[in-house]
Amino acid sequence: MKFAIALFAPSHAPSSRRALRFAQAALDGGHQIARLFFYQDGVHSASGNIASPQDELDLSGEWRTFVQQHKLDAVVCIAAALRRGVLNAEEAQRYNKPAANLEAPWELSGLGQLHEAAQMADRLVCFGGH
Amino acid sequence: MSKSMLIISRQAPWAGPSAREALDIALAGGAFDLPLGLLFLDDGVFQLAAGQQPGALQQKDLSANLQALPLFGVEELFVSSRSLAERGLDEAALALPAERLDDTALTLLLDRFDLVVTI
């Protein structure tokens, strides 16, 4: 089965961990992930500037490794990200901000990517909605 | 055929960006001509209250964006009559022509859509 996975919660929220474990289990079970789409506070789960204490789970780091290992299509909503200070180098320069905290494998794009993923997947599974 | 999506908007317009971000999913889908429905549930029904003055909270007015929904082809608008009643809005005029649904009708509504996104 082909899954589209949407995440609406930051990396310190339990639903971010659940989304990652679901995604891992999906691939382990022989399924595919059409796209990961991070929206609302979920954009924080893609931040490269989260420094977890050594004895705590580094979920944003785990997400990055997972996406890289499986070469997943991983999209962060650009409007939600800009509003929350999650910027790649290009956007940091465009808006004259002092730092970038988003890099590959994450891609900044629009909500059309969520709809496209929902249309091409067999299932859309959302985590961290209200 | 495209899959239909029901977006359930559950947050008040003054409670952070959620109301706007739920609406943005609807507007983006409408731009792609996707079959969409938008349901206002729980505190989300406050988005439909008429005569709001968001400027007093230094907030942008969401109602102009809500009015744009039909222009984007999003015409299936629903509101929970129970959520309205719980908040004293059952007699109020609503800012949008949303269909009022009781709990039984809500269950049927959820069944009718292929995809459900709750924000």
The CATH architecture of chain B would be 3-Layer(aba) Sandwich
Order of helices and strands of chain A: EHEHEHHEHE
The backbone outline of chain A, from C-alpha atoms, is: globular
- What's the number of structural domains of chain A? 1
Please state the average pLDDT score of chain A. 96
Level of helix content of chain A?
Answer: 25-40%
Helix segment tally of chain A = 5
Mean pLDDT of chain B: 94
Helix and strand content put the structural class of chain A at alpha/beta
Distance between the termini of chain B: 25 Å
Describe, in plain words, how this protein is organized in 3D.
The complex is a heterodimer of chains A (130) and B (119). Chain A has 130 residues and is an alpha/beta fold. Chain A has one domain (2-127): 3-Layer(aba) Sandwich (Hypothetical Protein Ychn, Chain: A), CATH 3.40.1260.10. Chain A has helices at 14-28, 59-69, 78-83, 89-94, 112-120; strands spanning 2-7, 32-38, 74-77, 107-109, 123-127. Chain A has a 5-stranded parallel sheet, with helices on both faces. In chain A, strand 1 (2-7), helix 1 and strand 2 form a beta-alpha-beta unit. In chain B, strand 1, helix 1 (18-31) and strand 2 (36-40) form a beta-alpha-beta unit. Chain B has helices at 18-31, 63-67, 81-86, 103-112; strands spanning 5-9, 36-40, 76-80, 99-101, 115-118. With 119 residues, chain B is an alpha/beta fold. The longest helix of chain B is centred in the first third of the chain and has 14 residues, at 18-31. Chain B has one domain (5-51, 60-118): DsrEFH-like (Hypothetical Protein Ychn, Chain: A). Chain B has a 5-stranded parallel sheet with strand order 4-3-2-1-5.
Please provide a brief summary of the model.
Chain A is 36% helix and 19% strand.
Sequence-ordered SSE layout with sheet pairings:
The complex is a heterodimer of chains A (130) and B (119).
Chain A lengths: L1 E6 L6 H15 L3 E7 L20 H11 L4 E4 H6 L5 H6 L12 E3 L2 H9 L2 E5 L3
Parallel strand pairs in A: 1-2, 1-5, 2-3, 3-4
Chain B lengths: L4 E5 L8 H14 L4 E5 L22 H5 L8 E5 H6 L12 E3 L1 H10 L2 E4 L1
Parallel strand pairs in B: 1-2, 1-5, 2-3, 3-4
